[in-house]
Amino acid sequence: MNEPEAARDLPVVLAADDDEDILELLVFRLERSGYSVLQARDGEEALELAREAKPDLAVIDVTMPKLDGFELTRRLRAEEVTRRMPIILLTARTQDADLERGFDTGADDYLRKPFSPQELSARVHAILGRR
Amino acid sequence: MTIVALALSAAALLMLLVLAARRLVLARRERGHAESERRVRPLALAIVEGSGGEPPALSARDQAVLAEVLGRYSRELTGEADRRIADYFHESAALTSAGGELGSRRMWRRAAAAYTLGDMRCAEAAPELLRALDDDKPEVRGAVARSLGRLGVSEAALPLIEALASRRISNEVGGEALIELGSDVVPELRHMAGHPDWQIRATAITLLGLVGTSGDSPVGVEALRDSSADVRRAAAAALGRIGSSDAETALRATLDDPVDVVRAAAAESLGLIGSRAAASELLELARTDEFRPAHAAAEALARIDPGSLAAAAAEPGAGPHLHEAADLRKL
Amino acid sequence: MSVVHAILRGVSWVALVYFAVLSLAYLTFTLVAWRRLGAHRRARKYLPLDEMYASPFTPPISVLLPAFNEETEIVSSVDSLLDLRYPRHEVIVINDGSTDGTLERLRAAFDLAPVRKALRTRIATAPVRASYISRTHPNLWVLDKENGGKSDALNVGMNAATHAHVCVIDADAVLEQDSLLRIIKPFVDDPELVAAAGGIVRIANGCVIDSGLLVKFGLPQSSLARFQVIEYFRAFLIGRIAFDSLNGVLIISGAFGVFKRAIVEAVGGYARDTVGEDIDLVVRLHRYLRTRGDDYRIRFVPDPVCWTEAPEDLATLSHQRRRWQRGLGETLWRHRSQIANPRAGAVGLVALPYFLLFEFLGSILQLVGIPVVLVSWLLGALSVQFFLVFLAVSVLLSVLLSIAAIMLEEYSVQRYKRASDIALLALYGVLENLGYRQMTAFFGCRGVVDLMRRRHEWGEMRRRGLERPEEAPSAREQARA
C-alpha cells in the first residue's frame, strides 16, 4: 500500500492518521475519487513519505504521535521539496484555539472531525483543480 | 488442617483449569472476530460510500461485527455518510435488539445498549432514549445523554439541561451532548439562565457561552450581577466568547468583584474581547498580589496593549505576572 | 522446660491467628476486587472517553514531571506526555539540579526560550534558577532549580501549575494514550467529592516501547522481574481495589497520580523529610479532608494506566524495598494517632492497621518465624506434622491467591494475551514461595532496621536528588529494546 513509486498518471495524496478507522475511510474515499493514496500512521512516517514520494497533496490529522500535524506542517513548509505541497489538516473540535496555529504554520485548509467524506474530496478537488 | 490443605490444592488446580480453558476459548473467539472483521470491512466501507448495492446475506456473527464496525465509523463521520449508516440500521435486527436491551434489568446492558443506539444513527431510537434519561444509574444516563447528542435529538435539549443542572449527568458528557445539538438548545438555555437554582443558572450560562451568539450577550451581562459567585464566574467567562460591546462596561466593573476567580474570568474575557478601554484597570490588577486575577490580567493586557505591557514590565517592582506576560509576548 | 514450651506454643498460636486473619483479609480483598473489576470491564463498553476528549468541560490538567539526571530518556518521556490524548493539558518539567545533560537535551529538542514564569509562593521550596517555555510546544514549561529532592521538585511544580488538577508522574513511567482520560474520570463523575486518584501501575519490563509509546505488552525475560509482576497482581492490585471501595486508599503511586492542586497546597505540599512522600501525602490528605467535615473520595482507577520499570538486579530491588518499608514506617509513625482511631474512618480503622500489621510488621514476622521454628524443633517443642501442614497451607493459599489475581487480570484487562504468559505467571506464583518472598521480607527488615537507626542518609539523599539508585540504565535499556 505504501509504494512510493505510485502510478504517476493519478494524482498522489498522502493520508496521515494514527486512527486505523479514519485512515481507512480516508483512503477508500480518496481512491474512489480517483487518487493514488499513500498511508502514514504517524508524523515521522508521513514526513518520510512526503520527502520520498512528493505527493500532490497531504491530508494530515492534527493529533498524531511522534510528530503532530502542526509540527509536521511546519517541517514540510521548511523543506524545499515539500514547501509548496498543499496541506489539509483534520482537527477535532477542541482544537479550535489551535487552528490559528495551524494556519500560521502554513496549512492550506482544515476539516473538522467528525468529517464528511464528500466534503473532503470536494476540498481536495478544489485545491488540486487549482494547480 | 490437612483437609484445608487438600481443599486449597483442589481449588488451585480447578482455577488453573478454568483459566486455561477460558484463555483458549477467548483466543478462539478473538480469532473468529478478527476474521469476521476482515470479511466485513469492505462491506462497511461500501455502505458508507453508497457503492455497495444490496449487501449479501451474512451470518449472525458477521452481521454483529458489521454493526460494530459501522458503529465505529459513525463516530468519525458526518453528512451523507452518516445518513447511509442510519439507513443501513433502520429497521435492522441490531437496532431492535439494542432497543430491547435498553429495558434490561442489568445496568451495564442498558448502558451498553444506550451507547450503541447512538452509533446506529437512527432517530427512531430517540423516544426510548429520552425515557431512559430517567434511569436510576448514572452510567446509563451518561450513555443516553451521549447518544442523544450524537443523534441530534433537539427535543432532548430541555431534559438534558435539567439532568445536567440537577447533577444527574456529568457536565462533561451532558455539556458535550448539548453542544452537539447546537443552536437548537439556545432558547432553552436562555430560559434556564433565570432558574431559581444557582447550579442550573451557572450551567446554562456556560453553555450559552459555547453555543450562543453575541445576541445572547445581554443574558450574560445580567448574570454578572447574580448573587452566586459561580454564576458570576460562568457569566464572566461566557462573555469572553459571546460578549458584544455592551458587555465591556459590565466586565470592567466586574474587575472589582469580591471573589478572585470572578475577577480572573472577567480579566480573561476582556482580553478576548480586546477591550482597549480596560487596559489601565487590567494593568492595576496585574500588579496585585492575588495570583489568579493578576495572572489573567497580565495575559489579557498582552493581547490588548502589548506596548504598555512591555513598558510596565520594565519598571522596577512590576511583579511576576507582568514579567511573565511580557516575556511570552516577545516570543 | 515446660515454660519455654508454653511460650513457644503461645507463639505458634499467635502465628496461626495472624496467618488466619491475613488470609481472610486477602480472600475478602480478592472477592471485592473480583466484583469491581467485573463491573469495570463491562463499563468499557459504554465509557464515554471520546466525549470526554471532545468536551470543553473536561478539566485541564497540569502534568508535573520531576527530573534528576534523566538525559537518556527525558526527551522521549516529554514527547510521549505531550502526545497524550487529552483536550487540554500542560507539561511542566522540573529539572531538580541535574548534573548531566538533561536540561541541554530539553533545550535542544524543544527550542526552549527563557520566560520568567510567575510562581505561587504558598509552598516553600528551594529556589528556581530559571524557567523556560518551548517555542514549538507552548504547553511545555521547563523549570530549572537547585537540587532539593523529589518532594521539593514536585512542590515547585505545584506552585507553577496553571490548572486546578495536577498529575504527578515519574520520568521513567510510561503512560497509555488514554491514561489521562481514564484517570480523570472519577473527577468527572463526582467533581465535588473526588480529591485525588491513582491508577494501576504495571511492570513495563518486557513490553515493547517505541518513542515513549507502548506498542506491545509482554512478560519480562528476567526472573526477578517476573516475580515482581505476579507480586504486583497478588499483593498490590487486589489490595488497592479493595481499599478503594472503603475510601481507604493510602497509596497513590508516586509514579502516576492526579490531585486537586488546591487541596495539596492546603496540606502544605509534599513533605521533604521522608522517603515515603507519596503515602505521607495521601494520609495527610485524608486527615485534612476528614477534619474539614465534607464528604470526599480518594479513588483508585482499576485501569492499567501506568507502566513502570521494575528492578532487574538484586541490589536495586533491595534498595527499593528498603526504601518502601522505611517510607511506610515513617508515615505510620508520623500519623500514629490515626491508627485504630474511629475519627479517622476507614483509613484509621482498616487501612492503617492493615499496613502496620501485615505490610510493615509482616516482613519482620516472616523472618523471625524461621529462627523460632528452628528453636522449637531443636527443643522438641515443634509438632513437625503440624508445622509441615501449616507450611503447605500457607503456600497453597498464596498460590491460590496468585492464580486468582491472574484470573482477575485475564478477566478484566487482558493485557497479556498469550496463554504461555499466563501459564508462566502461574508458575512464578508458585515459585515465589521458594525464596523470593523470603528475600523481599529480608529486604523489608533491613528497611525497618534503617528506619530504627535513622541513618542520616536523608542528607545524602537530598544531595543526590531523586533518590535514584545505581539501577537506572540497565533496567531501562532492557525495556526499551
Describe this structure in words.
The complex is a heterotrimer of chains A (131), B (331) and C (481). The two termini of chain A are 26 Å apart. In chain A, strand 4 (87-92), helix 4 and strand 5 form a beta-alpha-beta unit. In chain A, helix 2 (43-53) runs parallel beside helix 3. The model of chain A has no long low-confidence stretch (mean pLDDT 84). Chain A is built from five helices and five strands; from the N terminus they run βαβαβαβαβα. Chain A is of the alpha/beta class. Chain B is mostly helical and 331 residues long. Helix content of chain B is 74%, strand content 0%. Chain B has 19 helices and no strands. Chain B has helices at residues 2-49, 60-76, 80-89, 93-101, 107-119, 126-132, 138-151, 157-165, 171-181, 186-192, 198-211, 217-223, 229-242, 245-254, 260-273, 279-286, 291-304, 306-314, 320-330. In chain B, helix 5 packs parallel to helix 7 (138-151) and helix 13 (229-242) runs parallel beside helix 15. The mean pLDDT of chain B is 89. Chain C is of the alpha/beta class and 481 residues long. Chain C is built from 16 helices and twelve strands. Chain C has helices spanning 2-43, 49-54, 74-82, 102-110, 150-160, 179-189, 223-245, 261-266, 277-292, 314-334, 345-378, 384-412, 419-431, 436-453, 457-464, 472-480; strands spanning 61-67, 89-96, 112-114, 128-134, 140-145, 165-169, 174-175, 194-203, 208-210, 213-216, 256-260, 297-308. A ten-stranded mixed sheet of chain C has the order 3-4-5-2-1-6-11-8-12-7, with helices on both faces. In chain C, 51% of the residues are buried. Classes of the chains: A alpha/beta (131), B mainly alpha (331), C alpha/beta (481). Chains B and C meet through helix 1, helix 5, helix 7, helix 9 and helix 17 of B and helix 1, helix 2, helix 12 and helix 13 of C.
Q: What is the topology?
A:
The complex is a heterotrimer of chains A (131), B (331) and C (481).
Chain A: E1 12-16, H1 20-32, E2 36-40, H2 43-53, E3 57-61, H3 69-78, E4 87-92, H4 96-105, E5 109-113, H5 117-130
Helix pairs in contact in A: 2-3
Chain B: H1 2-49, H2 60-76, H3 80-89, H4 93-101, H5 107-119, H6 126-132, H7 138-151, H8 157-165, H9 171-181, H10 186-192, H11 198-211, H12 217-223, H13 229-242, H14 245-254, H15 260-273, H16 279-286, H17 291-304, H18 306-314, H19 320-330
Chain C: H1 2-43, H2 49-54, E1 61-67, H3 74-82, E2 89-96, H4 102-110, E3 112-114, E4 128-134, E5 140-145, H5 150-160, E6 165-169, E7 174-175, H6 179-189, E8 194-203, E9 208-210, E10 213-216, H7 223-245, E11 256-260, H8 261-266, H9 277-292, E12 297-308, H10 314-334, H11 345-378, H12 384-412, H13 419-431, H14 436-453, H15 457-464, H16 472-480
Parallel strand pairs in C: 1-2, 1-6, 2-5, 8-12
Antiparallel strand pairs in C: 3-4, 4-5, 6-11, 7-12, 8-11, 9-10
Helix pairs in contact in C: 1-7, 1-11, 1-12, 7-12, 7-13, 9-10, 10-11, 10-14, 11-14, 12-13
